[in-house]
Amino acid sequence: MAAVEIDRLTKKFGPVTAVNELTLHVPKGTVFGFLGRNGAGKTTTLRVLLGLAKPTAGDVRVLGRSIREDRSYLQRVGFLPDVPVFYNWMTAREYLRFAGELFGLGSAKLNRRIEELLELVGLHKEKNRIGGFSRGMKQRLGLAQALINDPEVVFLDEPTSALDPIGRKEVLDSINAFKDRVTVFFSSHILADVQRVCSRVAIIDRGELITEGDIAELRRKYGGRTVEIEVTEVPDDLVRKLGEVHWCERIEVRGNVLELGASEVEKAARGLPELLAETRVGIIRMESREPDLEEIFVKLVKPDGS
Amino acid sequence: MGARVLFRKEVTEILKTYKIYVIPLLFLVFGFASPVITKLLPDILAGLSNMEIVVPEMSWIDAFDQFFKNLNQIGIIAVILMFMGRVAEEKHRGTATMILSKPVSRTAWVIAKFGAAVLLVLLSMIPAYLACCIYTKILFGTASVALSLQATSVFAVYVIYVIGFTVGASAVMKTQVAAGGVSVGLLILSSLLPAFSQKLSRFCPGSLTGYPHSLLSGSMSLSEAFPALLSALVSTVLFLSVGIFAFERQEV
Q1: Which of A74, A83, A89 sits opposite B101 (nearest CB)?
Q2: What is the mean pLDDT of residues B24-38?
Protein backbone atom coordinates (compact mmCIF):
# COMPACT_ATOMS: atom_id res chain seq x y z
CA MET A 1 0.00 0.00 0.00
CA ALA A 2 1.25 3.46 -0.90
CA ALA A 3 1.49 6.06 1.86
CA VAL A 4 -0.19 8.64 -0.35
CA GLU A 5 -2.28 7.91 -3.47
CA ILE A 6 -3.53 10.86 -5.46
CA ASP A 7 -5.82 9.95 -8.33
CA ARG A 8 -6.76 12.62 -10.89
CA LEU A 9 -6.92 15.35 -8.26
CA THR A 10 -8.29 18.67 -9.48
CA LYS A 11 -8.64 21.78 -7.37
CA LYS A 12 -10.18 24.95 -8.77
CA PHE A 13 -10.54 28.38 -7.21
CA GLY A 14 -13.27 29.96 -9.30
CA PRO A 15 -11.94 30.12 -12.84
CA VAL A 16 -8.37 29.30 -11.76
CA THR A 17 -7.27 25.67 -11.86
CA ALA A 18 -4.59 25.30 -9.20
CA VAL A 19 -4.20 21.52 -9.57
CA ASN A 20 -5.22 19.69 -12.72
CA GLU A 21 -5.80 15.92 -12.79
CA LEU A 22 -2.76 15.20 -10.66
CA THR A 23 -1.96 11.52 -10.15
CA LEU A 24 0.80 10.52 -7.74
CA HIS A 25 1.82 7.51 -5.69
CA VAL A 26 4.16 7.93 -2.77
CA PRO A 27 5.52 4.57 -1.60
CA LYS A 28 5.85 3.97 2.12
CA GLY A 29 9.28 4.63 3.57
CA THR A 30 10.43 7.07 0.88
CA VAL A 31 11.50 10.66 1.18
CA PHE A 32 9.42 12.05 -1.64
CA GLY A 33 10.36 15.40 -3.16
CA PHE A 34 7.39 17.36 -4.51
CA LEU A 35 8.95 19.93 -6.81
CA GLY A 36 7.57 22.92 -8.59
CA ARG A 37 7.98 26.63 -8.98
CA ASN A 38 6.17 29.07 -6.69
CA GLY A 39 2.49 28.87 -7.60
CA ALA A 40 2.80 25.46 -9.27
CA GLY A 41 0.12 23.97 -6.98
CA LYS A 42 2.30 22.32 -4.33
CA THR A 43 0.77 24.00 -1.27
CA THR A 44 -2.76 23.56 -2.62
CA THR A 45 -2.10 19.83 -3.06
CA LEU A 46 -0.78 19.60 0.49
CA ARG A 47 -3.77 21.48 1.88
CA VAL A 48 -6.08 19.01 0.15
CA LEU A 49 -4.07 16.09 1.53
CA LEU A 50 -4.52 17.46 5.04
CA GLY A 51 -8.24 18.19 4.75
CA LEU A 52 -7.70 21.95 4.94
CA ALA A 53 -9.08 22.40 1.41
CA LYS A 54 -11.65 20.34 -0.45
CA PRO A 55 -10.84 18.72 -3.78
CA THR A 56 -12.93 19.82 -6.76
CA ALA A 57 -12.55 16.37 -8.33
CA GLY A 58 -10.50 13.24 -7.94
CA ASP A 59 -9.70 10.90 -5.10
CA VAL A 60 -7.00 11.16 -2.47
CA ARG A 61 -6.05 8.38 -0.10
CA VAL A 62 -3.60 8.79 2.76
CA LEU A 63 -2.48 5.58 4.47
CA GLY A 64 -5.29 3.76 2.70
CA ARG A 65 -8.04 6.12 3.90
CA SER A 66 -9.98 8.33 1.52
CA ILE A 67 -9.79 11.89 2.81
CA ARG A 68 -13.40 12.44 1.72
CA GLU A 69 -14.67 9.65 3.98
CA ASP A 70 -13.12 10.43 7.33
CA ARG A 71 -10.40 12.43 9.03
CA SER A 72 -9.04 9.61 11.17
CA TYR A 73 -5.88 9.44 9.05
CA LEU A 74 -4.83 12.77 10.57
CA GLN A 75 -4.07 10.82 13.75
CA ARG A 76 -1.20 9.15 11.84
CA VAL A 77 0.26 12.09 9.92
CA GLY A 78 2.27 15.19 10.75
CA PHE A 79 2.38 18.54 8.98
CA LEU A 80 4.75 21.48 8.84
CA PRO A 81 3.30 24.43 6.87
CA ASP A 82 5.60 26.75 4.91
CA VAL A 83 5.29 29.43 7.59
CA PRO A 84 4.49 27.75 10.89
CA VAL A 85 2.61 30.09 13.22
CA PHE A 86 2.46 29.40 16.94
CA TYR A 87 0.91 30.90 20.03
CA ASN A 88 3.61 33.38 21.00
CA TRP A 89 2.76 33.20 24.69
CA MET A 90 3.69 29.52 24.85
CA THR A 91 7.16 28.04 25.28
CA ALA A 92 8.37 25.33 22.89
CA ARG A 93 7.64 22.66 25.51
CA GLU A 94 4.15 24.01 26.16
CA TYR A 95 3.34 24.03 22.45
CA LEU A 96 4.59 20.48 21.97
CA ARG A 97 2.56 19.37 25.00
CA PHE A 98 -0.55 21.05 23.57
CA ALA A 99 0.04 19.45 20.14
CA GLY A 100 0.65 16.03 21.71
CA GLU A 101 -2.49 16.26 23.83
CA LEU A 102 -4.52 17.01 20.70
CA PHE A 103 -3.38 13.58 19.49
CA GLY A 104 -4.49 12.10 22.80
CA LEU A 105 -0.97 11.22 23.95
CA GLY A 106 -0.63 10.29 27.61
CA SER A 107 1.51 12.30 29.98
CA ALA A 108 4.48 9.96 30.55
CA LYS A 109 4.89 9.07 26.88
CA LEU A 110 4.39 12.69 25.86
CA ASN A 111 7.04 13.97 28.27
CA ARG A 112 9.59 11.54 26.80
CA ARG A 113 8.58 12.43 23.24
CA ILE A 114 8.84 16.18 23.88
CA GLU A 115 12.39 15.85 25.21
CA GLU A 116 13.41 13.55 22.31
CA LEU A 117 12.08 15.98 19.73
CA LEU A 118 13.52 19.10 21.33
CA GLU A 119 16.87 17.32 21.36
CA LEU A 120 16.40 16.33 17.70
CA VAL A 121 15.73 19.89 16.57
CA GLY A 122 18.24 21.46 18.94
CA LEU A 123 15.77 23.40 21.09
CA HIS A 124 16.17 21.38 24.30
CA LYS A 125 17.85 24.26 26.15
CA GLU A 126 15.31 26.83 25.02
CA LYS A 127 13.16 28.15 27.86
CA ASN A 128 11.85 31.40 26.35
CA ARG A 129 8.45 32.03 24.85
CA ILE A 130 7.99 31.31 21.15
CA GLY A 131 7.32 35.03 20.50
CA GLY A 132 11.06 35.63 20.89
CA PHE A 133 12.15 32.82 18.53
CA SER A 134 14.01 33.41 15.26
CA ARG A 135 12.53 32.19 11.97
CA GLY A 136 14.84 29.17 11.99
CA MET A 137 13.92 28.23 15.54
CA LYS A 138 10.22 28.41 14.67
CA GLN A 139 10.82 26.21 11.63
CA ARG A 140 12.63 23.64 13.78
CA LEU A 141 9.85 23.77 16.38
CA GLY A 142 7.40 23.29 13.51
CA LEU A 143 9.30 20.20 12.53
CA ALA A 144 9.15 18.90 16.11
CA GLN A 145 5.38 19.44 16.38
CA ALA A 146 4.92 17.65 13.05
CA LEU A 147 6.59 14.59 14.60
CA ILE A 148 4.98 14.72 18.04
CA ASN A 149 2.53 11.88 17.30
CA ASP A 150 5.27 9.65 15.83
CA PRO A 151 3.54 9.89 12.42
CA GLU A 152 3.72 7.38 9.62
CA VAL A 153 3.73 10.18 7.04
CA VAL A 154 5.01 13.69 7.54
CA PHE A 155 4.14 16.49 5.12
CA LEU A 156 6.67 19.30 4.90
CA ASP A 157 5.69 22.37 2.90
CA GLU A 158 8.74 24.41 1.83
CA PRO A 159 10.49 23.72 5.13
CA THR A 160 13.67 25.55 4.14
CA SER A 161 12.56 28.23 1.70
CA ALA A 162 12.67 31.21 4.05
CA LEU A 163 15.76 30.23 6.01
CA ASP A 164 19.34 31.41 5.87
CA PRO A 165 22.04 28.82 5.00
CA ILE A 166 22.61 27.88 8.65
CA GLY A 167 18.87 27.51 9.29
CA ARG A 168 18.50 25.42 6.13
CA LYS A 169 21.32 23.13 7.17
CA GLU A 170 19.81 22.67 10.63
CA VAL A 171 16.40 21.75 9.21
CA LEU A 172 17.87 19.39 6.59
CA ASP A 173 20.04 17.73 9.24
CA SER A 174 16.92 17.18 11.34
CA ILE A 175 15.09 15.64 8.37
CA ASN A 176 18.06 13.38 7.67
CA ALA A 177 17.96 12.28 11.30
CA PHE A 178 14.37 10.99 11.18
CA LYS A 179 13.86 10.09 7.52
CA ASP A 180 14.58 6.39 8.02
CA ARG A 181 11.61 6.00 10.36
CA VAL A 182 8.86 7.80 8.45
CA THR A 183 7.53 8.54 4.96
CA VAL A 184 8.38 12.15 4.15
CA PHE A 185 6.45 14.22 1.61
CA PHE A 186 8.83 17.12 1.01
CA SER A 187 7.42 20.00 -1.01
CA SER A 188 9.99 22.51 -2.22
CA HIS A 189 11.32 24.65 -5.02
CA ILE A 190 14.87 24.51 -3.65
CA LEU A 191 16.28 21.72 -5.77
CA ALA A 192 19.57 21.37 -3.93
CA ASP A 193 17.68 20.65 -0.70
CA VAL A 194 15.48 18.07 -2.38
CA GLN A 195 18.50 16.40 -3.95
CA ARG A 196 20.13 16.25 -0.54
CA VAL A 197 17.34 14.43 1.29
CA CYS A 198 14.96 12.85 -1.24
CA SER A 199 15.14 9.50 -3.00
CA ARG A 200 12.15 9.99 -5.28
CA VAL A 201 10.62 13.13 -6.79
CA ALA A 202 7.64 14.42 -8.72
CA ILE A 203 7.84 17.66 -10.67
CA ILE A 204 4.67 19.66 -11.19
CA ASP A 205 4.11 22.78 -13.21
CA ARG A 206 0.92 24.84 -13.51
CA GLY A 207 -0.88 22.22 -11.44
CA GLU A 208 0.05 19.34 -13.73
CA LEU A 209 2.45 16.48 -13.20
CA ILE A 210 5.47 16.75 -15.49
CA THR A 211 7.37 13.68 -14.33
CA GLU A 212 7.80 11.34 -11.39
CA GLY A 213 10.47 8.83 -10.45
CA ASP A 214 13.69 8.02 -8.58
CA ILE A 215 16.27 10.77 -8.91
CA ALA A 216 18.75 8.32 -10.48
CA GLU A 217 16.08 7.18 -12.93
CA LEU A 218 15.25 10.76 -13.90
CA ARG A 219 18.92 11.52 -14.42
CA ARG A 220 19.15 8.63 -16.85
CA LYS A 221 15.86 9.45 -18.50
CA TYR A 222 16.22 13.19 -18.99
CA GLY A 223 19.74 14.17 -18.24
CA GLY A 224 22.26 12.51 -20.56
CA ARG A 225 25.61 13.61 -19.15
CA THR A 226 27.40 16.88 -18.74
CA VAL A 227 30.96 16.88 -20.12
CA GLU A 228 33.34 19.53 -18.88
CA ILE A 229 36.63 20.07 -20.78
CA GLU A 230 39.42 22.49 -19.97
CA VAL A 231 41.37 23.18 -23.14
CA THR A 232 44.39 25.23 -24.22
CA GLU A 233 42.18 27.57 -26.27
CA VAL A 234 38.58 27.73 -27.53
CA PRO A 235 38.63 28.56 -31.25
CA ASP A 236 35.35 29.61 -32.91
CA ASP A 237 35.77 26.70 -35.28
CA LEU A 238 35.50 24.21 -32.40
CA VAL A 239 32.34 25.82 -31.03
CA ARG A 240 30.81 25.84 -34.54
CA LYS A 241 31.59 22.17 -35.10
CA LEU A 242 30.23 21.20 -31.67
CA GLY A 243 27.01 23.00 -32.55
CA GLU A 244 26.67 20.82 -35.64
CA VAL A 245 27.00 17.37 -33.98
CA HIS A 246 23.70 15.81 -33.01
CA TRP A 247 24.77 14.39 -29.61
CA CYS A 248 25.66 17.82 -28.27
CA GLU A 249 22.52 19.58 -27.09
CA ARG A 250 24.08 22.43 -25.10
CA ILE A 251 27.36 24.34 -25.16
CA GLU A 252 28.53 26.75 -22.50
CA VAL A 253 31.92 28.47 -22.74
CA ARG A 254 33.59 29.87 -19.60
CA GLY A 255 37.09 31.09 -20.44
CA ASN A 256 39.03 28.00 -21.50
CA VAL A 257 36.38 25.65 -20.09
CA LEU A 258 33.69 24.09 -22.27
CA GLU A 259 30.57 22.59 -20.69
CA LEU A 260 28.66 20.34 -23.03
CA GLY A 261 25.29 18.67 -22.58
CA ALA A 262 25.72 15.23 -24.15
CA SER A 263 22.49 13.42 -24.99
CA GLU A 264 24.31 10.26 -26.17
CA VAL A 265 27.27 9.58 -23.97
CA GLU A 266 28.96 6.88 -26.08
CA LYS A 267 28.87 8.99 -29.25
CA ALA A 268 30.24 11.96 -27.31
CA ALA A 269 33.08 9.81 -25.92
CA ARG A 270 34.10 8.79 -29.45
CA GLY A 271 33.36 12.05 -31.31
CA LEU A 272 34.78 14.61 -28.91
CA PRO A 273 38.49 13.58 -29.06
CA GLU A 274 38.24 13.54 -32.87
CA LEU A 275 36.82 17.08 -32.96
CA LEU A 276 39.51 18.34 -30.61
CA ALA A 277 42.21 16.73 -32.74
CA GLU A 278 40.73 18.24 -35.93
CA THR A 279 40.80 21.73 -34.49
CA ARG A 280 44.26 21.12 -32.96
CA VAL A 281 43.13 22.03 -29.44
CA GLY A 282 45.04 20.59 -26.47
CA ILE A 283 43.18 19.04 -23.52
CA ILE A 284 44.16 20.04 -19.98
CA ARG A 285 41.32 18.30 -18.17
CA MET A 286 38.16 16.40 -19.16
CA GLU A 287 35.45 14.93 -16.96
CA SER A 288 31.87 13.88 -17.31
CA ARG A 289 29.15 13.87 -14.65
CA GLU A 290 25.45 13.12 -14.33
CA PRO A 291 23.18 16.17 -14.45
CA ASP A 292 21.84 17.46 -11.16
CA LEU A 293 18.16 17.88 -10.39
CA GLU A 294 18.30 21.55 -11.28
CA GLU A 295 19.37 20.78 -14.84
CA ILE A 296 16.54 18.25 -15.20
CA PHE A 297 14.06 20.71 -13.68
CA VAL A 298 15.07 23.57 -15.98
CA LYS A 299 14.84 21.21 -18.94
CA LEU A 300 11.32 20.06 -18.07
CA VAL A 301 9.62 23.12 -16.65
CA LYS A 302 8.51 25.66 -19.22
CA PRO A 303 9.45 29.26 -18.51
CA ASP A 304 6.63 31.70 -17.69
CA GLY A 305 4.65 32.83 -20.69
CA SER A 306 5.48 29.82 -22.85
CA MET B 1 -11.77 15.22 19.82
CA GLY B 2 -9.59 17.22 22.17
CA ALA B 3 -12.38 19.49 23.47
CA ARG B 4 -10.95 19.42 26.99
CA VAL B 5 -7.44 20.15 25.70
CA LEU B 6 -8.69 23.02 23.55
CA PHE B 7 -10.72 24.50 26.42
CA ARG B 8 -7.71 24.30 28.73
CA LYS B 9 -5.57 26.03 26.11
CA GLU B 10 -8.13 28.83 25.78
CA VAL B 11 -8.27 29.34 29.55
CA THR B 12 -4.47 29.26 29.80
CA GLU B 13 -4.24 31.83 27.00
CA ILE B 14 -6.60 34.13 28.89
CA LEU B 15 -4.55 33.71 32.07
CA LYS B 16 -1.18 34.23 30.39
CA THR B 17 -2.03 37.22 28.22
CA TYR B 18 -3.54 40.70 28.65
CA LYS B 19 -7.00 39.15 28.32
CA ILE B 20 -7.06 38.34 32.02
CA TYR B 21 -6.85 42.05 32.88
CA VAL B 22 -9.18 43.87 30.48
CA ILE B 23 -12.68 42.53 31.20
CA PRO B 24 -12.23 41.77 34.93
CA LEU B 25 -10.69 45.17 35.65
CA LEU B 26 -13.21 47.06 33.53
CA PHE B 27 -16.14 45.35 35.20
CA LEU B 28 -14.59 45.87 38.64
CA VAL B 29 -14.19 49.59 37.94
CA PHE B 30 -17.88 49.73 37.03
CA GLY B 31 -18.70 47.89 40.26
CA PHE B 32 -16.79 50.42 42.37
CA ALA B 33 -17.54 53.56 40.39
CA SER B 34 -21.27 53.19 39.68
CA PRO B 35 -22.49 53.68 43.30
CA VAL B 36 -19.97 56.48 43.88
CA ILE B 37 -20.97 58.39 40.72
CA THR B 38 -24.65 57.93 41.53
CA LYS B 39 -24.15 59.23 45.07
CA LEU B 40 -22.12 62.23 43.94
CA LEU B 41 -24.22 63.04 40.85
CA PRO B 42 -26.48 65.68 42.53
CA ASP B 43 -23.40 67.48 43.94
CA ILE B 44 -21.59 67.28 40.60
CA LEU B 45 -24.58 68.73 38.75
CA ALA B 46 -24.99 71.49 41.33
CA GLY B 47 -21.34 72.41 41.00
CA LEU B 48 -21.55 72.67 37.21
CA SER B 49 -24.02 75.57 37.14
CA ASN B 50 -25.14 78.53 39.20
CA MET B 51 -28.72 77.65 38.38
CA GLU B 52 -30.58 75.55 40.85
CA ILE B 53 -31.03 72.04 39.44
CA VAL B 54 -33.51 69.80 41.15
CA VAL B 55 -32.28 66.23 41.10
CA PRO B 56 -34.47 63.54 42.67
CA GLU B 57 -32.89 61.81 45.57
CA MET B 58 -30.74 58.92 44.44
CA SER B 59 -31.37 55.43 45.82
CA TRP B 60 -29.62 52.05 45.78
CA ILE B 61 -31.71 51.20 42.69
CA ASP B 62 -30.14 54.12 40.80
CA ALA B 63 -26.69 52.88 41.82
CA PHE B 64 -27.38 49.44 40.33
CA ASP B 65 -29.05 51.03 37.30
CA GLN B 66 -25.84 52.94 36.66
CA PHE B 67 -23.84 49.71 37.04
CA PHE B 68 -25.94 47.90 34.41
CA LYS B 69 -25.89 50.93 32.08
CA ASN B 70 -22.09 50.93 32.20
CA LEU B 71 -21.95 47.18 31.59
CA ASN B 72 -24.46 47.43 28.75
CA GLN B 73 -22.62 50.24 26.97
CA ILE B 74 -18.87 50.06 27.46
CA GLY B 75 -18.85 46.55 28.93
CA ILE B 76 -20.63 44.90 26.02
CA ILE B 77 -18.48 46.71 23.43
CA ALA B 78 -15.39 45.55 25.34
CA VAL B 79 -16.71 41.97 25.26
CA ILE B 80 -17.22 42.17 21.49
CA LEU B 81 -13.77 43.70 20.93
CA MET B 82 -12.19 41.04 23.10
CA PHE B 83 -13.82 38.02 21.48
CA MET B 84 -14.47 39.04 17.86
CA GLY B 85 -11.13 37.61 16.80
CA ARG B 86 -11.25 34.35 18.73
CA VAL B 87 -11.68 32.20 15.63
CA ALA B 88 -11.22 34.71 12.78
CA GLU B 89 -7.81 35.87 14.00
CA GLU B 90 -6.52 32.31 14.19
CA LYS B 91 -7.71 31.66 10.62
CA HIS B 92 -6.09 34.89 9.48
CA ARG B 93 -2.76 34.39 11.29
CA GLY B 94 -2.35 30.74 10.38
CA THR B 95 -2.49 29.14 13.83
CA ALA B 96 -5.75 27.50 12.70
CA THR B 97 -3.85 25.65 9.95
CA MET B 98 -1.49 24.19 12.55
CA ILE B 99 -4.38 23.01 14.76
CA LEU B 100 -6.87 21.86 12.13
CA SER B 101 -4.30 19.68 10.35
CA LYS B 102 -4.45 17.58 13.52
CA PRO B 103 -7.36 15.31 14.48
CA VAL B 104 -9.31 18.19 15.99
CA SER B 105 -13.04 18.79 15.68
CA ARG B 106 -13.89 22.26 14.47
CA THR B 107 -17.07 22.15 16.54
CA ALA B 108 -15.06 21.43 19.69
CA TRP B 109 -12.69 24.25 18.80
CA VAL B 110 -15.46 26.86 18.51
CA ILE B 111 -17.24 25.62 21.63
CA ALA B 112 -13.99 25.68 23.61
CA LYS B 113 -13.52 29.32 22.64
CA PHE B 114 -17.11 30.19 23.55
CA GLY B 115 -16.85 28.33 26.86
CA ALA B 116 -13.62 30.04 27.88
CA ALA B 117 -15.05 33.46 26.98
CA VAL B 118 -18.22 32.83 29.00
CA LEU B 119 -16.15 31.61 31.95
CA LEU B 120 -13.99 34.75 31.92
CA VAL B 121 -16.93 37.15 31.65
CA LEU B 122 -19.10 35.43 34.25
CA LEU B 123 -16.19 35.20 36.71
CA SER B 124 -15.49 38.90 36.05
CA MET B 125 -19.08 39.77 36.96
CA ILE B 126 -18.83 38.24 40.44
CA PRO B 127 -16.29 40.66 41.98
CA ALA B 128 -17.86 43.54 40.04
CA TYR B 129 -21.29 42.71 41.47
CA LEU B 130 -19.88 42.31 44.99
CA ALA B 131 -18.08 45.65 44.73
CA CYS B 132 -21.26 47.36 43.56
CA CYS B 133 -23.27 45.70 46.32
CA ILE B 134 -20.85 46.65 49.10
CA TYR B 135 -20.36 50.25 47.94
CA THR B 136 -24.10 50.74 47.44
CA LYS B 137 -24.78 49.47 50.95
CA ILE B 138 -22.10 51.78 52.39
CA LEU B 139 -23.18 54.87 50.45
CA PHE B 140 -26.96 54.40 50.43
CA GLY B 141 -27.44 52.41 53.59
CA THR B 142 -29.47 49.69 51.88
CA ALA B 143 -29.49 47.35 48.88
CA SER B 144 -31.60 44.32 48.11
CA VAL B 145 -29.27 41.39 47.56
CA ALA B 146 -32.10 39.22 46.21
CA LEU B 147 -33.30 41.73 43.62
CA SER B 148 -29.80 42.81 42.58
CA LEU B 149 -28.78 39.15 42.19
CA GLN B 150 -31.80 38.53 39.95
CA ALA B 151 -30.94 41.59 37.86
CA THR B 152 -27.29 40.51 37.58
CA SER B 153 -28.28 36.97 36.58
CA VAL B 154 -30.57 38.28 33.84
CA PHE B 155 -27.81 40.54 32.55
CA ALA B 156 -25.34 37.63 32.66
CA VAL B 157 -27.59 35.68 30.27
CA TYR B 158 -27.60 38.70 27.95
CA VAL B 159 -23.78 38.75 28.02
CA ILE B 160 -23.71 35.02 27.16
CA TYR B 161 -25.98 35.82 24.20
CA VAL B 162 -23.58 38.58 23.04
CA ILE B 163 -20.59 36.23 23.36
CA GLY B 164 -22.57 33.62 21.40
CA PHE B 165 -23.12 35.82 18.36
CA THR B 166 -19.63 37.31 18.59
CA VAL B 167 -17.92 33.91 18.58
CA GLY B 168 -20.39 32.69 15.91
CA ALA B 169 -19.54 35.69 13.69
CA SER B 170 -15.85 35.08 14.32
CA ALA B 171 -16.24 31.52 13.05
CA VAL B 172 -18.07 32.66 9.92
CA MET B 173 -15.90 35.64 8.95
CA LYS B 174 -12.32 35.54 7.72
CA THR B 175 -10.97 38.56 9.62
CA GLN B 176 -11.61 39.86 13.09
CA VAL B 177 -12.60 43.29 11.76
CA ALA B 178 -15.34 41.70 9.66
CA ALA B 179 -16.41 39.58 12.63
CA GLY B 180 -16.51 42.73 14.79
CA GLY B 181 -18.63 44.52 12.19
CA VAL B 182 -21.13 41.67 12.05
CA SER B 183 -21.23 41.48 15.86
CA VAL B 184 -21.89 45.21 16.27
CA GLY B 185 -24.58 44.92 13.58
CA LEU B 186 -26.24 42.09 15.50
CA LEU B 187 -25.97 44.08 18.72
CA ILE B 188 -27.74 47.05 17.14
CA LEU B 189 -30.37 44.77 15.62
CA SER B 190 -30.92 43.10 19.00
CA SER B 191 -31.46 46.43 20.70
CA LEU B 192 -33.85 47.67 17.98
CA LEU B 193 -36.01 44.56 17.65
CA PRO B 194 -37.98 45.00 20.94
CA ALA B 195 -39.12 48.44 19.76
CA PHE B 196 -40.91 47.01 16.71
CA SER B 197 -43.55 45.06 18.57
CA GLN B 198 -44.71 45.31 22.15
CA LYS B 199 -45.98 41.73 22.03
CA LEU B 200 -42.83 40.25 20.59
CA SER B 201 -40.48 42.27 22.79
CA ARG B 202 -40.91 39.83 25.68
CA PHE B 203 -39.29 37.18 23.45
CA CYS B 204 -36.44 39.40 22.28
CA PRO B 205 -32.99 38.84 23.84
CA GLY B 206 -32.43 42.59 23.45
CA SER B 207 -35.17 43.22 26.02
CA LEU B 208 -32.92 41.75 28.68
CA THR B 209 -30.94 45.00 28.87
CA GLY B 210 -34.03 46.81 30.24
CA TYR B 211 -35.05 44.07 32.66
CA PRO B 212 -32.48 44.75 35.42
CA HIS B 213 -34.14 48.12 36.14
CA SER B 214 -37.61 46.57 36.15
CA LEU B 215 -36.48 43.79 38.45
CA LEU B 216 -34.70 46.17 40.82
CA SER B 217 -37.70 48.50 41.04
CA GLY B 218 -40.07 45.57 41.54
CA SER B 219 -42.14 46.41 38.45
CA MET B 220 -41.59 42.93 37.05
CA SER B 221 -40.95 39.49 38.47
CA LEU B 222 -38.19 37.15 37.40
CA SER B 223 -40.72 34.73 35.88
CA GLU B 224 -41.78 37.47 33.44
CA ALA B 225 -38.24 37.52 32.12
CA PHE B 226 -38.25 33.82 31.26
CA PRO B 227 -39.40 34.12 27.59
CA ALA B 228 -36.59 36.54 26.76
CA LEU B 229 -34.07 34.52 28.81
CA LEU B 230 -35.04 31.33 27.00
CA SER B 231 -34.97 33.13 23.66
CA ALA B 232 -31.47 34.47 24.42
CA LEU B 233 -30.16 31.01 25.26
CA VAL B 234 -31.78 29.43 22.18
CA SER B 235 -30.40 32.27 20.01
CA THR B 236 -26.95 31.68 21.48
CA VAL B 237 -27.10 28.03 20.45
CA LEU B 238 -28.39 29.05 17.00
CA PHE B 239 -25.64 31.63 16.43
CA LEU B 240 -22.98 29.15 17.49
CA SER B 241 -24.52 26.46 15.27
CA VAL B 242 -24.50 28.77 12.25
CA GLY B 243 -20.88 29.68 13.00
CA ILE B 244 -19.86 26.03 13.30
CA PHE B 245 -21.83 25.05 10.18
CA ALA B 246 -20.06 27.73 8.12
CA PHE B 247 -16.67 27.02 9.68
CA GLU B 248 -16.94 23.28 8.94
CA ARG B 249 -17.29 24.16 5.25
CA GLN B 250 -14.51 26.72 5.10
CA GLU B 251 -11.04 26.14 3.71
CA VAL B 252 -8.40 27.42 6.08
Answers
A1: A74
A2: 97
